[in-house]
# Entry
Amino acid sequence: MMRKLVSGICVLLVLAACGRKEEMAAAPMLAAAPAVEMARKLEAPQTDAGQPASVPRHIELRHNVVIEVAEDRLEAVWRTQLEACQLPACEVVAAGVANQSGDMASANLALRIVPGRAGELLATLRGLGKLAQHEMSQNDRTNEVVDLQARLANQKALRDRLRGLLAGRVDKVRDLLEVERELARVQGEIDSLEGQMRATLAVTEKVSFDIQFRAPASLSQPGSWEPLREAWRRLGSTFAESLAMLMYFLVGGLPWFAVGAAVLWGGRRLWRARKSGPKS
# Structure
């Protein structure tokens, strides 16, 4: 009996010692967990408010430039700038020349160019002729890009889940068709969002230039006297309209003129009668 009691006490002591060793081994692991989490937070870029660093800005820059060039070299200048724009640094969006009789000759050129070459292009344009106009505008489209990225990520995650359903076991044909229809809809939404993203990035990654080349205005230019000719043609109609307004005024006020004259004549008669009464 005594021997069994001693054996039981020994077993309890051994188990207690093993439990203590496990606690001591687990303690460093528990203490290391907060340190690992803190290290991960320190590795992430932070701002002053403790939030993740701000996303890159997406700014749409646009220049509207008007250059006056001699009419005889206008088309040559336009063609030279058109041919100088080469991918990938420069992209031609639109181009055209207008040489209609009676109108001032002009040409237009819409470009997208990498930001590093924008200053060079402006200097080149100033050297081509007189800088008649230069306007610069910018539009911050960062929120639009962030929104598109978030929507695109959500739609792609939904697409992956739907593909997982198709890869799994679907019991009913009706459920299978419903999943396929939803997957097609989600894929169409993804394609649309990717198209919007490409279009937005296209105008923010490059600087847009709307350039107009025009000939200087002169009195010998066809059409320069057209405003005076138009004024002369409208002279008769303007005089007729003014005369018509005067006639409307006279005809409309004639009854009131008659009433006013009658009142004035009666008042004058009454005043004379009162004035001559006491003397008689």
About this structure: Residues 1-6, 8-52 have pLDDT under 50 and may be disordered. The two ends are 169 Å apart (CA to CA). Residues 159 and 185 are 10 Å apart (CA to CA). DSSP finds six helices and five strands in the chain.
